[in-house]
Amino acid sequence: MEPPNSFDEELRAFAAELRALRDERGHRSYRELAGRAGRSDSGIRLPVATQSDAFSGKRLLGFDTLMGLVRILYAYDAFGQEIAVPPHSAPELERWRRDWRALAALRPAPTGRRAAAPGPAPEPVPAAGRAPARGAAPAPPPVPASEPLPCPEPQPARAPAGRGNAEESGASAAPPPPPVLFTPRHRLSRHAGAVWSVAFSTDGRLLATTCEDDRVRIWHTATGKQFAASLPGTFPVLFTPEGRILVTDAGNRTTVHQFSTGTLSPAGPPLVGTGAPIRMMAAAPEPALLAVLDFEGDVRLWNPASGDGAALIDSEVQDPQELRTLVQVPDGRLLGAGYGARVWDLLHPHPGTGEPIGPRVDAPGVLALSPDGRLVAFGRADGTAGVLGTRPGLPLVPLAGHRGAIHALAFRADGRLLASTSADGTVRLWDPRTGLPAAPPLTPHDGAEGADGADRADRADPADPADPAINGVAFSPDGRLLATAGADGTVVLYERAAPAPAPTVATRALATAVRARRPVQLPPVKVGSALVRVAFAPSGQVLATTTGERSVLLHDPVTGRALGEALVDPPTLPWALAFTSDGGLLATASVGRSVCLRDPDEPWSGRAVETGHTGAVKKIAFSPDGRQMATGGADATVRLWDRATGQLTASLTEHTNEVVGLAYSPYGLHLASSGADGQVLLWDKHLRALVGRFGRLGGGTAWAVGFSPDGGRLAAALADGGVRFWEPLTGLPVGSAGFGAGHTGAVYDLAFSPDGELLASAGEDGRVLLWDVTSGERVGHPLTGHTGAVNGLAFSPDGTLLATAGRDGTLRRWIVGSG
Fold first, then answer.
1. Does 686 score more than 70 pLDDT?
2. pTM of this prediction?
3. Is 58 inside a domain boundary?
4. Structural domain of residue 99, as residue ranges?
5. pLDDT higher for 624 or 160?
6. What is the DSSP letter of 91?
7. Between the CA of residue 375 and those of 371, 392, 417, 637, what are the distances in Å?
């Protein structure tokens, strides 16, 4: 016998499969899908509301409508590019026909009434803020004694329908504890007082924290490092998709200031309001608009570019029963919720007619709407909390467990996880549909030291370490990170600890291809200007390239997405590019014979090191311990520098023409150099003495040198199209002529894979070749696709990805390992 909620569960699963197909095809917006349908000449019509119902699991679409939606999703390839709409008979549609029929057979009779299932949505919205007295931890307003609390007494948790429970089956064992969902990653401890709130950027790479010292601090979530500067202001704070951070003025909390997330410089006019202090901010349906809610329940819509604003809700005129939270839902509506258990469609022509929900919730301290607008969570000063569906007649689900005032609530972006924080010092994670704990309570602020080793003593004016209250909480947009803000002056950043899913068929197929040494190319990244050198950051999260237009570009190595604007100041000479082994510095050669050292987390600025070369800087390398920097110049010299002091320690002058190749041995004992004179030289790094000379090679430039990861091989890229190998300590060649000629033109760069098994070479002939380091034999077919010379290449730190930079203005990436 099917359990009563079988149809609902299957409908949610079906909607999840639709969302997965949408993500697989480039996560197109509802409007893009509707437009694609209109251009297809297929007769398919996909209104936004219809798509919202399908992807959220609100209802089962009719057969023809559902198949039309699936056909339009399949009208994009795996890389999100438009292709032909498949016909009705396409084989990939058969599973969707079969699943629709099976689901339709489970559908209850039309007279049956069922609750709408919550569905995921792309953008989370932080919980409503609170207006604290200066110097005091924020707290929700007290519950009036005269108003009854409708939240029922918590009932024992029931087993899911159809599974029974221990009592019914006679078993005495307690139910297993919920799994651990998040583990600590960083403790951000350098605040000068209690932390009020936390907010993530839209890509999850940055975290903003607000503190009682009226400063907003910006942190890198990958490293836990803070930006060099902070911003004046207080909560609420909001990041926009356009790359701005909006900060509330601490002195006049009706005003919002705009800053660039890249430089923290002003990025637009102040948005000046009137009336009560701002409670929270949210994106409006158009990306360029901002919705602001104040503590009197008024809502104002601003245009950040012009500073113009207009009132959407005026509490004195329309009585919204004090709105307390906002959320933009996927179908474009801007919703709000507040006292009186009503949800307000704020862009409706008559927003004063909010839709009632029940049972009535009187005087909630804090509220949060789920990202799809279907659930309202509330928490009070007495520790009671619960979740309501936003449709009339749905029961209240109590959340029992906190022993102190509820300070903040936040839904994960998919709406299936709710976080609550309390004065009792715990963060609790809930399944909002059942009210059951989804994970053990987190107590992030009960210790003095965290993952980054920072201690409370590091703060000049530490908060009271005895106060366990947690004032704020937020999920990153992708749900991978969770941040908590403590009254003790710390922020704890958690990372999702979910187990890895079983490999898909595609994953296994990719692994099979890689094991057979058949690299798989990712879509090329077209830059437009010639690319010269390429380097991975040691973290593997950033790919840097230099261009013929004297700039540096940063990309996400997996997606190819640009990470900010091109770095054009100072102008960059393209042949030198290097990260330190700890990832703390990115070095490039500047016009004017200097080296620019940048913090990769804040690359828009850097400090210059004057090298003293009498010609252009052609190559930069760092020792493995990061303490020494070597530069090679057009003046035929190699110069060594102390990184900490910036002082020149040696000048090596055995080359007779410009130096274009430099590499340190893995253990830092030796430095190899190569030049336009055809020589490859080996130097003792400490004695600054020449210990090996490998002669003139092929009568042309030796464009690059490199050591194998174990230090047992030294390789050089030659102008005659070959690659030579030696044992660096004996000077003996490996093989009669190294790897011999493989390219039909000069070899401009080479790189060893981190495991030392492969060598990759980049050629003037536009090809990339892979070599077996042990045998010297070619591996597989040449990697092709560039329409001009390949100037540079690099392996990712884990050896799974090979990136190549082409004169044709493309950055290409090949999967060459399975990790």
1. yes
2. 0.50
3. yes
4. 6-106
5. 624
6. G
7. 8, 12, 11, 68
